[in-house]
Amino acid sequence: MNTSSMSNLQLRVISAVILAAVVLILTWIGGLPFRILAIVIAGAMFFEWVSMTRGGLKIGPVIPYAVFALSMLVLLWMPMALIVLAAIVVAAAIAALFAETKGQGAWIAKGFLYAAASGFALSYLRGDSQAGLIAILFLFAVVWATDIAAYFVGRAFGGPKLAPTISPGKTWSGAIGGTIGGVAAGMIIGSLAGGASYGIFVTAVLLSVVAQIGDLFESSVKRFAGIKDSSNLIPGHGGVMDRVDGLVVAAMALYVIGALAGHPDQPAVALF
Length: 272
Prior knowledge:
Layout: H1 3-29, H2 31-51, H3 62-73, H4 81-97, H5 104-126, H6 130-157, E1 161-163, E2 167-171, H7 172-193, H8 197-225, H9 240-261
Antiparallel strand pairs: 1-2
């Protein structure tokens, strides 16, 4: 390994350790600090989204960013979930209206909804309860284990490509190995929390699969934009979307599962 590769690897490891520590500490604290973290993630995703399209996006983004910021601030007070969802949809439409060039409004609106729904799901899953802490740790365990297992199993066994036109490096063996790893990690967290084993198993399978779909979705967006990384905000790792693509989509899925099983403003209570 040459000096440049070693330096980049060290940078990736240092960045990963720092990010993981910050995220886990804020997750443990919960409440307002975690909601702020969710808003920062959502804001970074929106910034990256409107910045990556083929040839560069010329949108004069001040007004869309301002609308997005005001919408996300609503999460600081944790009002009723359906009210927030309605506000997000309306704000997305407003942001789209201020796009300066034909065809950009739809792109902005899609990114607005994608980023805002991510912040919304993370905020409401964590909430202020012990169940919310368990739900987020369960989410992290499934998604992170899926990523790690998929990488190593895919490299070890190779085989047919999962989606060669979207992400040539991903294989079916990696996807299956990732799901097995994600489910195993989720079952460990679920059993420690005393959750129903069958329900935890099914939920972990769904989240692992959805996380991998989220990864492919972000890869397709980057392929459309003709770029390798969503941005360079994270040293050695690329952009925020590159790191949370599977996590945020899985968070949305977990929120929906909990909301259908319980109350929309406390979805984790129905899960753990």
